[in-house]
Amino acid sequence: MHESIHEHTDHDQQKNEAAKKTATLVYALQAASFLLTVTFIAAIIINYVKKDDVADTWVASHFRWQIRTFWFALLWSGFGAILFFLGIGYFILIGVAIWVIYRIAKGWLALADGKSMYLED
């Protein structure tokens, strides 16, 4: 039997809501990482485990945003840690922290407003 348009729309809406809840959880875990670092790792694991579930939703752009936030923060934090003893690393680490806060705030606010993170989405 064929699904009615209404049933298809309800399914899409439920999928979008579930995806939005997951993205909200990831933003919360990323924010909590300033108190407990391991939550940043938990967040990226959730991103990769649930990535297929959000693939055809507007929330997929948030997952891409969150994943990029993690990997670039890790990369720049690594540089900061290596250069810490030369004095410049401290400033790099402060910059990374500010950048991560910005990314979490911008993404979470856009998610709450029902907006994608990129123009092409």
Structure explained in plain terms:
This protein is mainly α and 121 residues long. It is 74% helix and 0% strand. The protein has 4 helices and no strands. Helix 1 (5-32) packs antiparallel against helix 2, helix 1 (5-32) packs parallel to helix 3 (60-83) and helix 1 (5-32) packs antiparallel against helix 4 (88-112). It is elongated.
Question: Can you tell me the overall shape?
Answer: elongated
Radius of gyration: 17 Å
Which class best fits the helix and strand makeup?
mainly alpha
Mean pLDDT: 91
Report how far the terminal alpha carbons are from each other: 32 Å
Order of helices and strands: HHHH
Reported for the largest beta sheet, the result is: none
What's the count of strands?
0
Oligomer: single chain
Total individual domains: 1
Relative helix content? over 70%
Indicate the topology.
Elements: H1 5-32, H2 38-50, H3 60-83, H4 88-112
Helix pairs in contact: 1-2, 1-3, 1-4, 2-3, 3-4
Which labels suit this protein?
elongated, 121 residues, single chain, mainly alpha
Quick structural summary:
The protein has 121 residues and is mainly α. It contains 4 helices and no strands.
